[in-house]
Design brief:
- It is a single chain.
- The protein has a four-stranded antiparallel sheet with strand order 4-5-6-7, with no helix packed on it.
- It has a single domain, classed as Lipocalin, CATH 2.40.128.
- A hairpin with a 2-residue loop joins strand 8 and strand 9.
- Helices cover 0% and strands 41% of the residues.
- It is built from no helices and 14 strands.
- By secondary structure, the protein is an all-beta fold.
Length: 174
């Protein structure tokens, strides 16, 4: 199991050894690996795809960490890729769409403004941005007002985004 705390430390845990208070232990034996300051702050869940773990920390880039490189069972200590966008004080919860192990797209919402949210799409391998909802003229693709901790949902070839009083569906134009 992998997660980051609010302070930004990333923890890799052995899910088969959860619980059981360890009185007198010099360190917490359930923690397999700690990466201090792996993200600036964390208020969301990570995404996982193709042996990469993605964190969308607050005031930080989305960072991709490699998992199990050289059969180590550990995360890379430094990110192997990161987004160009820095997400605001709430961060973001990334989500992935793919065709199995190929064509991965990482989707994330930026809720930094009070006017509207911005949907971002990145190549999940390189973290190069391939789309954002600010690109279309006249605000055509704006998904509505931002809502804290909203996660894009992918189903049936579309990306759905909840906003204040709205649900916006993104897909290919006819």
């Amino acid at each position: 199991m992998v997660q980051a705390g609010k302070e930004g430390t990333i923890y890799l845990l052995d899910r088969m050894k959860m619980g059981h208070y360890c009185s007198g232990c010099s360190h917490d034996t359930q923690i397999v690996q700690e990466i201090p300051s792996g993200v600036i702050k964390n208020f969301s869940a990570p995404a996982f795809w193709n042996n990469r773990v993605y964190f969308g920390g607050a005031g930080d880039h989305i960072k991709a960490f490699s998992f199990n490189a050289n059969n180590s069972g550990l995360l890379s200590f430094s990110p192997v890729a990161k987004s160009s966008t820095v997400f605001g004080s709430r961060g973001t919860t990334p989500t992935i769409s793919s065709n199995g192990t190929s064509n991965g797209i990482l989707w994330a919402l930026e809720n930094a403004t009070t006017t509207y949210a911005v949907l971002h799409a990145y190549n999940a391998t390189t973290m190069t941005e391939i789309y954002n909802s600010n690109q279309a003229l006249n605000g055509r693709d704006h998904p509505g007002g931002p809502v804290k901790f909203t996660t894009p949902v992918i189903a049936n070839g579309k990306v759905y985004v909840g906003g204040k009083g709205t649900v916006t569906a993104f897909g290919l134009l006819p």
